[in-house]
């Protein structure tokens, strides 16, 4: 049997007695020594006293030696090799040049690690040196792999150090970390080594030595610190805040432009005060359309800039409405006005502002003092048709057409036409003052309407006819399905007369006159169209109130009037719920290199989910106005399908969707998506030497900067020693001479006591 | 009260007074969309103020931008044709028999779906005569909406003229009564014979004296009539937030 090889030992007690018994016996021995000393306390000779004390104490120690039964434990031990983690930042900012015109920060680290390879090899005697790249997941790396471009979208130094520490638990412990980075952390340590992040680093109990790579003297301007809400209210002002970070642009003016899908919304110029300056810029603007739009903040790319990709920053903004703000302008009080007002006033989603012409110049109220006796108020034309016009979602003219200079809107017609063209909604309700009747022709405003006046009004009562387009159109589809819609309209009473109009090319006639024709076509009663970015609707009669009141004459309640005008308002303001195809970018802002997702919800004309609908989505670049990719899919039972596009080039895109179920066209829809040129990583090319130094300080490491020639002596924890084999005990107490010594001591004391007269 | 004798001369003068209205009517766009008061034809004395109604529509045309047909069209309360005339005048002198169930149901539907009724005690009664009968029937028509006094700040007192009281031919009750359906006053009720102050005879002269205020009170009664018509047409327009501060400032 081979005896094992022991390479360590330690002194141990081999006594079988329990510790408490040993303690009691030791106390007894101590008492014996003390009593012996007490017995010779009157001995006048100090020498004798010391001799007797010494002999008794020696005997006590010898006795204790036998009680404890000391021995040597031979051990077979080994020293564990702990780990040293070399962590190299693989975030995209490491692709920035380490110095102007030089190699990248990653290449700088790779070069250093090659130079330090011998020193790292020396550490292999005591440590296992592991080299990782982190993005922020740890992945084994070599100097060759570190030379490839770094692409990670974030820098998370704390996560990387935690991952390195955690990887060794249960096996080899971590003795230290060598962290190579530019320090451009944009996650937990973004605000510095403070608070919980600081505590977490300290709790690791691992010295982290940092090696900062890169110089802070780069020339770069970046759009940073974007602050904007996810959504805004249409026709309400909104502020977008960004920070322009300029390095190397002291005293230079930098133009900053905010654009919406290629159209400039606002621009400003900032002046950089110092070589490394951050200037806040706030853009306040008023979105005038609902929907989702891509906005881009851009600064020019200057010669010699370190990074050009961080000169733009795109974001999507969903513009919604709070309440539909309606301006109702009434030519004179009438029953048509009364029922429309009643409807709009009871609708909680409508914020109604109305102005009625209660008195014209030809009216004589028969008062002495207009101000004191009449409740009439001025008609603030300039305010509502100029300064405040854009605050309204819908403008309704109800038989409003006056030629009196005090009431004529000739001066503001162009404003109204532009209002519609630029995204507003307008309704013209007929009567004896408009659409060819009366003297106010309003030619400019008429350009925005889907019909043109075509002759004198017809005063014959008639039942309007629903056109094929009207049967499906969300404005006139007041029933659940075509049959229900037709039945609902058929139940309504005839209306007494209509303006004679003719549809313009491009207009959609939803209802027309059953007999009256213009140019061979039935005269429109309700017509709609898109004018520019806005919408307009014409109701060529002032008798739609018959649908509200006279419809109840036979006793059966009718909601046709409410539904018609409710639908009309929703269509005019582009209520997303009125579309049969709802397109939603998922997510609306896409980080570089990520796929573009889109969710399409298809519904039938009766708004039931369209299962098995064939959906086609084009990804159209806003910059080139050309599709860059197409995806198709089939909806599930809920009428929903999610499609994904390969990561496109950065920039704003529109997602244009169409859908069909069999031969039935389900309409189209669109949404916007911003594919960002740079994530948070590339928007900041700065090197944070101070952060790296703080990190080293908190963990007990040291901080260094690259380039340097070789690896310095970095603080590393010593590896622990552990028993790896068997132990063997070798008794020491069972030697004969120990017993002789004890007997000799006791005998000598006895002899001395007799000699000195104590026994 | 006094009544003028109908002579051929008076008849010609009265007809001539309506001539301007007729000429404007000819330019109009659809008669049905103009203001034409319907008159409730019940089984009591319902037709004593028809000329007053024609007069108030004429005043409405003259003083405001509202287009009217100066007429008063009687209908049985059970008639579906009522639903082409959102303004209904319900007046009478003395008691009248209970309405038929069909009349009650039709009137309830009329008011519920947006019709407006001006009730007027032509006998200026209180607790008897027309007043008793009307209150009895209103309790059947709108049992959930009892007649209540219309507060002085109600929009009907500022819908065109700024008014403080509700006089008619008499001034027995300074304020109107009303039945509300939601926030809308579907019924306004005068116990001062409001239309009596408007009534004219065939010669164009006012038919009754006005007491106690005389002609100024008549003017106020006309203004109140116009305000009531304006309220029926414009509802609470003058209570809109954008107008109210200006109007309150005028009242100071």
Oligomer: heterodimer
How many extended strands of chain B? 7
Number of domains of chain B: 1
Largest interface: A-B, 53 and 47 residues
Tell me the fraction of residues in β-strands of chain A, as a range.
Answer: 25-35%
Instruction: Provide the CATH topology of chain B.
Output: Rossmann fold
At the fold tier of CATH, the topology name of the largest domain in chain A is Rossmann fold
Summarize it.
The complex is a heterodimer of chains A (759) and B (252). Chain A is α/β, with parallel strands linked by helices.
Q: How would you portray this structure in words?
A:
- Chain A is an alpha/beta fold and 759 residues long.
- In chain A, the strands form eight sheets. In chain A, strands 17-16-18-19-25-24-23-21 form an eight-stranded mixed β-sheet.
- In chain A, strand 32 (651-661) and strand 33 form a beta hairpin.
- In chain A, helix 1 (19-39) packs antiparallel against helix 2 and helix 2 (46-68) runs antiparallel to helix 18 (736-756).
- In chain B, helix 3 (50-63) packs across helix 7 (214-234).
- Chain B has 252 residues and is of the alpha/beta class.
- Chain B has one domain (8-251): Rossmann fold (3-Layer(aba) Sandwich), CATH 3.40.50.12140.
- Classes of the chains: A alpha/beta (759), B alpha/beta (252).
Features:
heterodimer; A: alpha/beta; Rossmann fold; Immunoglobulin-like; eight-stranded mixed sheet; 18 helices; B: alpha/beta; seven-stranded mixed sheet; 8 helices; 7 strands
Layout of SSEs?
The complex is a heterodimer of chains A (759) and B (252).
Chain A: E1 8-13, H1 19-39, H2 46-68, E2 70-79, E3 82-89, H3 105-115, H4 117-123, E4 127-134, E5 138-140, H5 143-146, H6 157-167, E6 174-181, H7 195-203, E7 208-212, E8 220-227, E9 231-233, E10 238-247, E11 253-260, E12 263-271, E13 276-285, E14 291-298, E15 312-320, E16 324-330, H8 335-346, E17 350-356, H9 370-373, H10 381-387, E18 394-398, H11 413-421, E19 425-429, H12 443-446, E20 451-462, E21 465-466, H13 468-472, H14 482-490, E22 495-503, E23 508-518, E24 521-531, E25 534-539, H15 545-548, H16 560-572, E26 581-585, E27 589-590, E28 596-602, E29 614-621, E30 626-634, E31 640-645, E32 651-661, E33 664-675, H17 689-699, E34 703-705, E35 721-731, H18 736-756
Parallel strand pairs in A: 3-4, 3-6, 6-7, 7-34, 9-15, 16-17, 16-18, 18-19, 19-25, 27-33
Antiparallel strand pairs in A: 1-2, 2-35, 4-5, 8-10, 10-13, 11-12, 11-14, 14-15, 20-22, 21-23, 23-24, 24-25, 26-28, 28-31, 29-30, 29-32, 32-33
Chain B: H1 8-17, H2 19-26, E1 38-41, H3 50-63, E2 73-76, E3 87-92, H4 101-112, E4 116-121, H5 129-141, E5 148-149, E6 177-181, E7 184-190, H6 194-198, H7 214-234, H8 244-251
Parallel strand pairs in B: 1-2, 1-3, 3-4, 4-7
Antiparallel strand pairs in B: 5-6, 6-7
